[in-house]
Amino acid sequence: MQKKAKENSVEFGLKLTNTLEVQNHKPIFPEYEKMMYMSGRSLHPISINVAAKLQNEFDGQLDISFSAGMDAFNVSDVLAANIKPITVCTDILKPGGYTRLAQYLHEINERFSEKGATTIDEFIFNGSGQTDVHRAGLEKLNLYAESVLDNPAYQKENKHFDSIKTTRTLTAYDCVSAPCIENCATDQEIPEYMHHVAQGDFNSAYETILNTNPMPGVTGSVCDHLCQQKCTRNNLDSTLLIREIKRFAQENSQGVQIEPKPFNGKTIAIVGAGPSGLSCAYFLAMDGFKVDIYEAKPFSGGMVSDAIPVFRLLDESINNDIDLVKSVGVDIHYNSDVDKNMFDTLQKDYDSIYLGAGAQNNKKLNIEGESLPNVMEPLAFLSKVRRGEINELGGRIAVIGGGNTAMDAARTSRRLGADVTIVYRRTMKEMPADIEEIVAALDEGITLEELTAPEKIYANDTENIFLTCSRMALGEADDSGRARPVKIEGSEIDLEFDTIIPSIGQDIAFDFLSWQDLRVNPETNETKIPNVFAGGDVVRGASSVINAVGDGRNAALNMIKAFGHSYSDANDRTLRLDKKEYQKKMAFREYGLTTPHLDPNKRINFDLVTRTLTQEEAMSEADRCLYCDEVCDVCVSVCPNLANLSYMASPKSYPVYSVSKTETGVNSKQDSIFKLSQEPQIINIGDFCNECGNCTTFCPTSGDPYKTKPQFYLSKQTYDLEEKGYWIDGKTLFSKNDGIQSSLKLTDGSYIYNSEAIDVKMDSSNYEILSAQFANGKSDLILSHLAEMISLFENLNQYPLLVSGES
Ligand code: SF4
Ligand code: SF4
Ligand code: SF4
């Protein structure tokens, strides 16, 4: 074909390839779709190797136009391989959008300067020793194609989280909110403490953390950091190490003074000195309550002190938090088991009670052989190891279960010398444990038997025991949203072990309160029993530390409210970046640190696996924060058609009137307010939007920006074609909303609002109604749409694109 092309004076070249048809294996699409398309990052190593194979056949003489997972970090290498033109697609459909191209130029310039190249050909020749540009390119292509296969940037493990979308509802206005905060059970003000750490102000960072979380030592080490899963940076490069930065701030603050309010005359009893009880106690004590904690054990911290292995959490970190809670005046009464009588006494002696006693009874497998001597309870095992009562454990160990306690039991057994197998009835993907803990267990040489469900334990005349299991397949999702394991008939196998540790969760240990008693209102953590609140594992079953802390805080805030007090943890602060600085930050991708774990080969003892960040690491990592609580604009940058527009509004409240017809005219009174609280607001330009849904994919809420945001049209012609939307000509704002047409005009200091239902004249300086007249059969109305239209008009009536239809 190359020859033919030459004979016909045309060019022959090849386009490689922005999509590759692959099996719908996940399945991302419905099952009936057998195929799907691979694109972006994962396609890059494949396509570049296809390019190398072809180019070798053509001795470097093939013209290849390339498009597969291109980004700022690989564009120079591909150019150096004499592949051009390069087309960029997936990368600029992600947050940052077209502005990402600035980094391409930046990186190309840097690489050219490094090599002293001023042209692409010079760059290709550089260091090759070849005299022919095609050969020079081919040499570099071969080297690059080989190196890319081992590059972690293209490997699946590099990304553990599929989407940063949260369950938050998207609203037409005021949608800016940091997804990391949204996903934190205790509303940590993450961007604020990131900012303080980036500035080197570690005391302010620590104070900010304490505003909503009195357990930074514990959560800085073992939080399951759901915030990181939703970090906007996941869609740019890599999540911020939020948990690690918290730990750094806690360990590097000095002399922070915490001042609780004076005693307010009210007393609270808390049952359990675990994370939930301690958290509740802290916030109550800070507000002036007298708090007594009753703890059954001779120490505080609950499961955290008793069962989390020291290779994950140091005593110092736990003690820091316990000392903090005691320092604000909380009294902890140890060895005080709360039974029915004691509970009755507490109800009489205190104004309120918080039950935060955890769930410390191991759940039973309910299979034959569970009480054989070689079957151990995980919590007792972990506790004994933490207290130095078990120092070795050889042989083959089965840990049954997929939660964090199961991972702790498995990793602890491994350190004690055992050959460990985790037996789990679903697959790794459905395991409830923190993904980091699962990966750590596998890295440490633990075997995972997926889709394997225990059915019986039995012993023979040797010292060993056998676990009879059935193999499972995944079926439909169950109530937990995870695929239900379905037994494969006839698939029974016997696995032989020395010890079995069933670890499938925990139940509550109270016997005087029923499950119904402990059902709480999730908004307030209040139980059905008057003045009794509850939270943490006692309500949720075995859950995360941060959920326990969050429940404790929520209950405390609601008790404070119930006693007529107010509690504010809001920080006064100014904007951290202006919008231009923010846009620049969003445009440049910058991979951060990976969690500084000990090499798996060195994890042979109980040394801490994750070290604290250095000051330099913490400050540079924190500086990657995009401050998503101030500006979002993700939908703006990801739109290929530039159809979402961000504008800066003046935050303001507008009265919403209720109007009704009377015999003499029309009565009006204020019904509510329409409030715009944030400066950055979004509208959608209907003329540009082709409803591709890319903004939905990346918007951190659960919503669809292009459907939810006010939709404007740039001309009367396009506006007239639609059922719903706005059009503005500089003096008048026109609207179609729920089939009702209306217009708003500013004239001589008055707003004139005309709709099919009512005509209103309003003073534009104070928004008082000057006159109103019902236009048809209606006799009462709430004028909320009028308030919304005034806000849109005032903020957008001079916006050049909208008024003239030109950008
Ligand atoms: S970039 Fe910062 S504010 Fe945004 S989600 Fe990540 S940590 Fe939170
Ligand atoms: S749906 Fe519309 S606004 Fe959203 S990305 Fe696609 S074109 Fe842009
Ligand atoms: S992506 Fe757009 S609509 Fe979604 S939260 Fe951000 S600014 Fe709002």
Describe the structure concisely for a colleague.
This protein has five domains: 2-158, no CATH class; 179-257 and 570-622, Fumarate Reductase Iron-sulfur Protein, Chain B, domain 2; 267-360 and 508-562, FAD/NAD(P)-binding domain (3-Layer(bba) Sandwich); 364-504, FAD/NAD(P)-binding domain, CATH 3.50.50.60; 634-804, no CATH class. Helix content is 32%, strand content 20%. A nine-stranded mixed sheet has the order 20-23-24-25-26-27-28-29-30. Strands 7-6-5-8-19 form a five-stranded parallel sheet, sandwiched between helices.
Walk me through the structure.
The model has no long low-confidence stretch (mean pLDDT 92). The longest helix is centred in the last third of the chain and has 18 residues, at 545-562. By secondary structure, this protein is of the alpha/beta class. α8 packs across α23 (615-622) and α9 packs across α12 (242-252). A hairpin with a 5-residue loop joins β13 (452-459) and β14 (465-477). The chain has 5 domains: 2-158, no CATH class; 179-257 and 570-622, Fumarate Reductase Iron-sulfur Protein, Chain B, domain 2; 267-360 and 508-562, FAD/NAD(P)-binding domain; 364-504, 3-Layer(bba) Sandwich (FAD/NAD(P)-binding domain); 634-804, no CATH class. The protein has a 9-stranded mixed beta sheet with strand order 20-23-24-25-26-27-28-29-30. A 5-stranded parallel beta sheet has the order 7-6-5-8-19, sandwiched between helices. Helix content is 32%, strand content 20%. It binds iron/sulfur cluster (3 copies). Residues 638-639, 641, 643-644, 684, 689-695, 706 line the site of one iron/sulfur cluster (SF4).
